[in-house]
Design brief:
About 20% of the residues lie in helices and about 45% in strands. By secondary structure, it is α+β, with helices and mostly antiparallel strands. It has two domains: about 30 residues; about 90 residues, Immunoglobulin-like, CATH 2.60.40.1220. The protein is elongated. Belongs to the CopC family. It is found in: Cell envelope; Periplasm.
């Protein structure tokens, strides 16, 4: 095989590799938490009645926890609902002033679990 023939035969292989790379990247993309109430890293003065999580795509909220500054779990009355939604409202009990961390786990349409956390402070 001549040098030119070898170079021409590698072009389809390179194209196939690039195509597979982009396909794999989009398949591994995870749904992100777009916004929350109370907002991420916010300081609020009023007691929140709910935690609201807004995701970029429809997901199933598998788990949500609220932790205080000492990492003590604050009981939330959340039951997993198998509906896929972009937004979830979870009632919260009365909270004292301090820093809180929200942790969550979702499952996307593709079956992949995603998790994350954010904090807010009540003054």
């Amino acid at each position: 095989m001549s040098f030119i023939q070898k170079k021409i035969s590698t072009v389809p292989s390179i194209f196939l590799g690039i195509t597979l790379l982009f396909t794999a990247t989009s398949a591994l993309a995870h749904v992100k938490l777009l916004s929350a109430i109370p907002a991420m890293n916010a300081t609020v003065t009023d007691q929140p009645k709910n935690l609201t999580l807004n995701f970029g795509e429809e997901v199933m909220l598998m788990n949500i926890k609220l932790l205080d500054a000492q990492q003590k779990n604050i009981s939330l009355n959340y039951k997993v609902n198998h509906d896929l939604k972009k937004s979830f409202n979870v009632p919260v009990p009365s909270l004292k002033k301090g820093k809180y961390t929200v942790t969550w786990t979702t499952m996307g349409k593709d079956g992949h679990n995603m998790n994350g956390e954010y904090s807010f402070t009540i003054q």
